[in-house]
Amino acid sequence: MLSQKPWKPELVLRLLAGLFASMLLGVLIVNGYESLAGEVGKRGRDIFIFIVGVFSFHGVGLVLVNVFLRQHEISWAAAFGFKSPRLGRTVFLAIVVGVFILPIAWELSDLSAKALRFFQMPVEQQTAVQLMQNATSRWHLLFQGFAALIIAPFVEETIFRGILYPTIKQLGFHKAALWGTSIFFALTHGNLMIFLPLVVLAIILTFLYETTNNLLAPIVTHSFFNAANFVYLLWLKHKSGSL
Predict the structure, then answer these.
(1) Would you say the C-alpha torsion 168, 172, 173, 178 has a positive or negative sign?
(2) How many alpha carbons fall within 13 Å on the CB side of residue 65?
(3) Are 44 and 184 in contact (CB under 8 A)?
(4) 80-84 — which CB contacts under 8 Å span 24+ positions?
(5) 123: left (phi over 0), alpha (psi -120 to 50) or beta
């Protein structure tokens, strides 16, 4: 059972406002880059957008969460249950859940792609996936792997499951907490083809956090999920001879 969190709604709103402001600034930076660079900058456009996206959301998000915890006078470990007992059991459960969710997510992605084609809507891969497919530098791939396996799972789980979910739930909106944060999580990835599988993933990650009372569990599952997809894309690049 998830323990009570001392999160003050007004401070949660400040955190979200800061995050949205940073993301808006990131969009303005990208637009400015595109207008100034013109045709010359198109070659490095994708990696630039990816780096700006990582720093404007994950980088700033990490700083804002740290400030948020200081305002509540609580440590990371105490806030998110990192020192909870039975750590080995928690990690093992997280990996088992990751193995379980992978084929379901892949099937849902295929189903979403078929539905989009049926309604004559464009079927496009997520920007990060497109960037990886087109990457020619191992340094680019290394940075993407670090972002996908380490940065994204930690920051996203902290914000969505660690802060937003318990805040809304403790206000008395249990269903809105589950569905609202799950849909919001999927929407932030900005891709219709993976929207449904990400909603399902987010719901499972929420239940995992509720079960273990340790945010490390959804972080590990999220990281495992991203790692499996990253390795699969690397294998496809190797198979095509572009790696």
Answers:
(1) positive
(2) 21
(3) no
(4) 80/158, 80/162, 80/214, 80/215, 80/216, 81/3, 81/212, 81/213, 81/214, 81/215, 81/216, 82/214, 82/215, 82/216, 84/212, 84/213, 84/214
(5) beta
Asked if 220 and 101 touch (Cβ cutoff 8 Å), the reply is no
* Residue 84 confidence (pLDDT): 84
Q: What is the mean pLDDT of residues 202-207?
A: 98
pLDDT at 40 over 70: no
Give yes or no for residue 191 having a pLDDT over 80: yes
CA dihedral 123, 128, 134, 139 (to 10 degrees): -170
Mean of all residue pLDDT scores within the chain:
92
CA torsion, points 104, 188, 155, 7, in degrees to nearest 10?
-110
Kindly tell me the number of DSSP H helices and DSSP E strands found in the chain. 12, 0
The string over 114-136, giving b where at least 16 C-beta atoms fall within 10 Å of a residue's C-beta and e elsewhere, is eeeeeeeeeeebbebbebbeebe
Question: Letter for the amino acid at 7?
Answer: W
**Tokens representing 204?**
């499972």
Q: Determine the distance from the C-alpha atom of residue 44 to the mean position of all C-alpha atoms in its chain, rounded to a whole number.
A: 24
Q: For residue range 209-221, list pLDDT tens digits in order.
A: 999 999 999 999 9
CA dist 223 → 47, 79, 113 (Å) = 21, 20, 24
pLDDT tens per residue, range 9-37: 999 999 999 999 999 999 999 888 877 76
